[in-house]
Amino acid sequence: MFIKNLRRKWSSKHTVSVNATPQLYLAFYARLKYPNTYHYALHISSPEGASNPAIRTMKYHCKNIITVTEGTVSIPWVYEAVAIDPDSDPRIVVRVLLGDVSRIDLVDSLLEAVPVGEGSKEDFNCVSWVKDALLRLDQSGA
After folding, report:
1. What is the rounded distance in angstroms from the CA atom of residue 47 to the CA atom of residue 59?
2. Over the stretch 15-66, which tens digit does the pLDDT of each residue have?
3. CA 27 distance to own-chain centroid
């Protein structure tokens, strides 16, 4: 009984009003081929406790894909925005709450416009894309 009450009292989950704004997270994903590194992505999630949220969680990131064009194999970087359930993805190591998103209407167009694959192969990766994306979100006031 005491433990049950203690958990409720000290729960990390907080009560959120229905009008709460979506929240921005930096997500770190395990990379199976490179266990000492992480794949970076941005998540925008409806706050816990929000009733009928317009979004649950959207994942924004860039990734490599293998393509074959006229017999030539390439692995370009591509941008992806996809709805996910972070609770069911075992590759997510941690999500760090960065803050609230005040202009959710701007997010898709801002992040889609972040350059992908710019610079030399060594200069661009998911980390540099996330840095550029966060800078754009900050500068726009989103």
Report:
1. 15
2. 444 557 899 999 999 999 998 999 999 999 987 655 555 558 999 999 988 8
3. 5
